[in-house]
Amino acid sequence: MKNRFFTILALALALMLLGGAALADVLTTGNVWMRSDPNREGDKITSIPEGVYLEYLAETRYDERPVAWYLVTDGEHIGWVSSMYSELIGEESIVVYDDDDGYDGYDDGDDYDGGYDGGDAVEVSGYYHADLLSAAYALSLPEFRNEVNSEVPYQYFNDAVTLAGIQQVECISINGAGYAVYGVSVGTPVETAISLLSAAGLDMQGDASDYCITFEHRAEDDSGFVDEYGHDSCIDLEIADGAVAEIDWSSYTG
């Protein structure tokens, strides 16, 4: 509690030194309690109605479900509001973790040396079937949504990559620069992408088209659904102008 107080105080002082300019806003999408801690057990500070813009204090934390909580101020109080009833508007958040948060350390995805690194892209193939919350922490993904009607309801994302699932990462989507799967990133030439995924042991399905290429991933264990050919998921590459435009890696569900 003492460390949390000094974290909040430091953030508030930093905003004062910046002339009070907000890094971003949080818009409430329903009636929500501002709480003293980033979880449902935090003390209720004040109730905030739907449609209110709050000043975002550049910190996002996740609770055990996992749900994101934003540190905000209404000009009178400082506290946390749940992303279940609010959304971050503007800049990406800065995710800060306490030493005792229980995060046990994914620093980057598993290294993959396939000869083409997509520039400075972060390799994320090592996060497939990893713990979802730990993977979101490791990539500092600032946004969260709960798609209740989806088979992968918990989704952590930024402008370029999304990790989704329930407990494990069951879906990885890349639609912007900066991230790669087995060395393939947005902008990778088609022939290079085919070579990299084939070299990684994935099985190409059918012939490459001008619009989409599908590869199937061989299961490394029997923890999930595996088809009769030993595949547990597929990687779809959307193609535009001879290069990869989007990557979607999804688990099979049976």
Protein model, in words:
The protein has 254 residues and is mainly β. The protein has two domains: 2-90, Roll (SH3 type barrels); 122-251, protein yfey like fold (Sandwich), CATH 2.60.460. The protein is built from three helices and 18 strands. A hairpin with an 8-residue loop joins strand 2 (32-35) and strand 3 (44-48). The model is unreliable at 1-22 and 92-118 (pLDDT under 50).
Q: What order do the helices and strands come in, and which of them pair?
A:
Layout: H1 2-17, E1 24-28, E2 32-35, E3 44-48, E4 53-62, E5 68-73, E6 78-82, E7 86-90, E8 122-123, H2 132-138, E9 143-146, E10 154-157, E11 161-165, E12 169-174, E13 179-181, E14 184-185, H3 190-199, E15 203-205, E16 212-218, E17 231-240, E18 243-251
Parallel strand pairs: 8-13
Antiparallel strand pairs: 1-4, 1-7, 2-3, 4-5, 5-6, 9-10, 10-11, 11-12, 12-18, 13-14, 15-16, 16-17, 17-18
Which characteristics define this entry?
disordered N terminus, elongated, SH3 type barrels, single chain, 5-stranded antiparallel sheet, protein yfey like fold, 8-stranded antiparallel sheet, 3 helices, mainly beta, about 250 residues
